[in-house]
Amino acid sequence: MCLAVPGKVVSIDHRADPLTGLIDFGGVRKQACLEYLPDVRVGEYVIVHVGFALQRLDEESARASLELFGQLGLLEEEFGDAWEQAARQESGSEAR
Amino acid sequence: MRYIDEFNDPELARRLLDEIRATVTRPWALMEVCGGQTHSIIRHGIDQLLPEEVELIHGPGCPVCVTPLDVIDKALEIAARPGVIFCSFGDMLRVPGTGRDLFRVKGEGGDVRVVYSPLDAVDLARRHPDRQVVFFAIGFETTAPANAMAVHQARRLGLANFSLLVSHVRVPPAIEAIMTAPACRVRGFLAAGHVCSVMGTDEYPDLAERHRVPIVVTGFEPLDILEGIRRAVHQLERGEHRVENAYPRAVREQGNPAAVRMIEEVFEVTDRNWRGIGRIPGSGWRLADAFRAYDAEHRFDVTGIRTEEPAECRAGEVLQGLIKPTDCAAFGTTCTPRTPLGATMVSSEGACAAYYLYRRMTDSPAPKSAAQEMNPVG
Amino acid sequence: MADLATESPEAVVDPADWTCPAPLRDQPVVVMGHGGGGALSAELVQQIFAPAYGNPTLAALTDSAVLDLGGARLAFSTDSYVVRPLFFPGGSLGDLAVNGTVNDLAMSGARPTHLSAAFILEEGVELAVLARVARALGAAAEAAGVTIATGDTKVVESGHGDGVYVTTAGVGLVPAGVDIRPQRARPGDAVLVSGPIGLHGVAVMSVREGLEFGVETTSDTAPLADLVAAMLAVTPDIHVLRDPTRGGLGASLNEIARASGTGVRLRERAVPVPDEVANACGFLGLDPLYVANEGRLVAFVPPEHAEAVLAAMRAHPQGTDAALIGECVADHPGMVVVATALGGTRVLDLPLGEQLPRIC
């Protein structure tokens, strides 16, 4: 269920009923209904499912999560076969 | 912060995996409830990276899989009527009812359209006043606010030619049903993050307490899933059973109050059949009395359609982790991805299909000859 | 609502009775998936066309047939084009009708020379629209260096067609010493792709009714015969070429793996997926590896020539972003396995039919 993706609010049409805004998903732009986040502002990130912004994304929480992950398991160990290592080396040049 | 790439970082994933390995001492079966999480797990190969003690059971959180056969048959019946534009999310078009699916209805001349948002269906109703526009309102709590808004808009715009075929389901009663099943092996849940973005987490502490099971609200990117697993394992190893939020960037305790208000205005809780499972009390939503005029089942008089579900495959046991796909007599014999008996053999994310593909990969049988596998030219 | 549930006895969860839906495979009618370039398309050929007129040439599974005619090796191919809308960012039906057939010929190493163009027109189509399609077709032919040598026009009643359909067929000569077909893939071959994938599919989807989204992506439609000639100048010993159109890279690699009885290993992070394609696929729930391309090729090249061929591709305007994305292996014959960025693996199966936007 529930393919929902983060996007940035680019503009808000306050005259639209229901409230509508343009969301940027990393270069892909699509209208979404903002009726469930009536006080959302341009520049904020929201999570969008079937054309509806369902929740705003909290940057502070996101950073705290990433920081926590960064502090885990600092032990470096060799693992994986040559194929995996090759895959990791490739990771510098990929598009995404 | 783009909220995607950051949560796909292979180095941070290694740290989370190391931490899970360092924590786990015994076998634990965890269920990820949501089909979107299952998709992510298979897509990134996360299940193969976990220590063998951690087993992921792919739960019933796929609306396509659990929508009952009766409702599919009602959809097929309505979609085939002249003058109807039947709108659906793409997911539902390949789901078979009795003997046919929506693709087939479309192939036979029915006007079946894939829409991205239910508001697109409302728009179609406005542009085609001479046609009946029906939207197939399936899904969990995440999709309910969108479908509720669609019918709300239709009423506001006075669109008498719009209706919903509703088959909404709710997660908490399903967790309750799974935990009370005999021989349940699930010891921890990764709760569906986006369901909680809408509904909040109020309904979960009671479930966690009564069934003594950790429930970790979990997101969908690889790091989110690993973090959900890490926290669930951590609790289990310490004998705890709490609700934790491992997806705080998108989930607040109170959910989205505006969305919940709209759901409560438009829908009311009802018992619902889950395909292959049976009736789960209070596990669904239907249109509330004030919106009953927009109920496609009544408008098209299909409430009488009854369908017996065939019980040919053991997907239910697989979904609950009671058996491995290979324990099923049909696995790899009468049931293959080419001739699937159940949804778990259908998509590559399905537990049975994943087993089947990996077994093929490991066993390396000789492929069919080129002549047998003729492909379209061009 | 007489909810059925309220009338049936309450069930305990009895997993033994838990069945799940399966897609119907044995359709008695043609469905859209039969044209999707995936497993359903393959079954149509296997179950309908092969029994009716199958022969060794057709069974060779190539994008174009290679015929020995009067001492010459003639590549011959045909394709029909039904894209909607007729004009999309970066191209049109006319471009596809030329480039598609030119590329099918080029995938056997041929230099395409002549094309036919047959139109099926729906009554009521504006002549101005038809003229635009025809002009685009002419311009594309000129750019690809081919001559439209013959043609035909039919008109169907209003409502019996979708504006304009075009079928092109083409011929070209295959140079001596060149033998390119999917059966020739060998373990050890390097797998190369000529540039970023998914652009055509995303560009077309972005303007399709009901899905419209804003993206600055244009179709990659382009003729590839010149790029192929540049690759063959490095070595005539290229084993396989395929243009991953419908069904995308995933379908092409599966077809090659099955035809040759080899396995393919793909490094996910080495596959050039533009951000816009990844993000559009993200919100529609699609896999970029299954999204259509119209100006890309995938090549299986012996390892000793891989570096030089890749350099030649990158030196050509149609291959500036060419990349080494994986290799052909003896393991898991007939299967394509992807090494994910996290270090896991997944099986990339042949898609069933067309990909649909999903919510789940």
UniProtKB/TrEMBL annotation, chain A:
Gene3D superfamilies named in the record: 2.30.30.140
A Pfam family: HupF_HypC
Alphabetized PROSITE patterns for the sequence: HUPF_HYPC
Family the UniProt entry places it in: Belongs to the HupF/HypC family.
Name by which UniProt lists this protein: HypC/HybG/HupF family hydrogenase formation chaperone
